[in-house]
């Protein structure tokens, strides 16, 4: 029996953004409050990474931002990883820095986990309208 391949970070994140487009209406929040941060990294097209760096892209910044203050935090930051993948040291440094500045930062390893984290952060319980 073959094991199912883990989805790529891109796949999980794309479905997560689509889910948010629906879920934000349930919790009565503007869709634009959750957004992805473009971090090109090693996968950038030739010359693109240099342009992005010049524009202020920083290594280690989490993948998705939710700019809604809750529970004494300024907002929520999500770093998407595949199961078994660990954050790099510079990502952990940025996560610690953001937490020191009052942000809730979570590393999520699946689409379901990302959705649960957002729902919990916003104080939403399934079945609630």
Question: Overall 3D geometry?
Answer: globular
| Class inferred from helices and paired strands | alpha+beta
Radius of gyration over alpha carbons?
A: 16 Å
Report how far the terminal alpha carbons are from each other.
41 Å
Largest sheet: 4 strands, mixed
Strand order of the largest sheet: 1-2-3-4
What is the H-and-E element order?
HEHEEHEH
Low-confidence stretches: none
CATH architecture: 3-Layer(aba) Sandwich
Strand content: 5-15%
Q: Approximately how much helix is present in the residues?
A: 25-40%
Walk me through this protein's architecture.
This protein starts with 8 loop residues before the first helix and ends in an 8-residue tail after the last helix. It has a single domain (9-121), classed as Trna Endonuclease, Chain: A, domain 1 (3-Layer(aba) Sandwich), CATH 3.40.1350. Strands 1-2-3-4 form a four-stranded mixed β-sheet, sandwiched between helices. α3 links the parallel β3 (76-80) and β4. The longest helix is centred in the N-terminal third of the chain and has 18 residues, at 9-26. The chain is built from four helices and four strands, in the order αβαββαβα. With 129 residues, it is of the alpha+beta class. The protein is globular.
């Amino acid at each position: 029996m073959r094991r199912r391949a883990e989805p790529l970070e891109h796949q999980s994140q794309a479905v997560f953004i689509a889910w948010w487009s629906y879920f934000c209406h349930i919790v009565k929040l503007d869709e634009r409050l959750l957004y992805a941060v473009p971090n090109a990294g090693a996968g950038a097209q030739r010359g693109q990474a240099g342009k992005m760096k010049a524009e202020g892209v920083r290594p280690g910044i989490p993948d998705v931002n939710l700019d809604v203050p809750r529970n004494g935090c300024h907002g929520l930051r999500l770093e998407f990883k595949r199961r078994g993948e660990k954050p790099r040291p510079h990502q952990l440094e940025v996560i610690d820095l953001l937490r020191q500045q009052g942000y809730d930062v979570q590393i999520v390893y699946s689409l379901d986990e990302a959705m649960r984290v957002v729902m919990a952060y916003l104080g939403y319980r399934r079945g609630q309208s």
